[in-house]
Amino acid sequence: MSLEETRIAIASAFYQWSSIISGKYMDLFMIALHEIGHQLGIKMILYLCLTFFLAAYAKDYSDRGFDKNIDWVDFSQAQALALKEHKPIFLLITHSWCHACQSMKFDLKNDTRKPIFLELTKNFVMVNLEDKEEPEDKKYAPDGVYTPRLFFMDSNLNIMPVHSKYDGYHKFFFPYMHHMMDGMEEALRHFGFKLPATDRIHSDKVEQKEAHKSDHFHKRI
């Protein structure tokens, strides 16, 4: 196969794959890629393909594996947005290697109460940080560096006294969706929101049963 045939084959295959991601903008991209390819050759095509793929992957992973229907924002923008919209901040800290964090993601995607959870998120400035994004300030590890840790903060970045009732030891450990929802509702009340009545009822037996599952979560303390 000649260099020109190889160039065409790569461009064609890449077009079919990337059109799924980029839609209407891909035609313009391929025209530019074809012109650049004639000038700079196949190495530049491969470089641009790799760059485009990495950019698409980075954008796709902006939610760190949590729900894409949630309006996640960068931590650096959270305070300004909280002040502007008069909302509390939902700050979730996780690790990619953490079993409890992966279980939380699974629960978030499969819990039947997900629509209620998504509605609650609209009342918060939603932030989730993973791995090296975790703040170094000890303020965000008041009772250990286990994960996941969930903090509710006001617009001045003061941590609200909203604590998990999951195991009685880790105040900011909210491993299941309904624990997060309970915390979110408490945070909203603390922030001054008036919440409508909810039909979510958690019996003591359910809470006690799930409390015994704590040994299934590997927390780094």
At the fourth CATH level, what is the homologous superfamily of the largest domain?
Glutaredoxin
Largest sheet composition? 3 strands, mixed
Strand order across the biggest sheet?
Answer: 2-1-3
**Structurally, how many domains make up the residues?**
2
Mean pLDDT score: 75
Per CATH, the architecture of the largest domain is 3-Layer(aba) Sandwich
Question: Structural class, from helix and strand content?
Answer: mainly alpha
Alpha-carbon Rg, integer: 23 Å
Order of helices and strands: HHHHEHHEEHH
List the keywords.
about 220 residues, mainly alpha, Glutaredoxin, 3-stranded mixed β-sheet, 8 helices, 3 strands, about 50% helix, globular, disordered C terminus
Characterization of this structure:
- The chain is mainly alpha-helical.
- The protein folds into two domains: about 5-60; about 75-215, Glutaredoxin, CATH 3.40.30.10.
- About 50% of the residues lie in helices and about 10% in strands.
- It has helices at about 5-20, 25-40, 40-60, 75-85, 100-110, 115-120, 175-190, 205-210, and strands at about 90-95, 125-130, 150-155.
- The chain has a three-stranded mixed β-sheet, with helices on both faces.
- α1 packs parallel to α3 and α6 (about 115-120) packs parallel to α7.
- Residues about 20-25, about 50-60 and about 200-220 have low confidence and may be disordered.
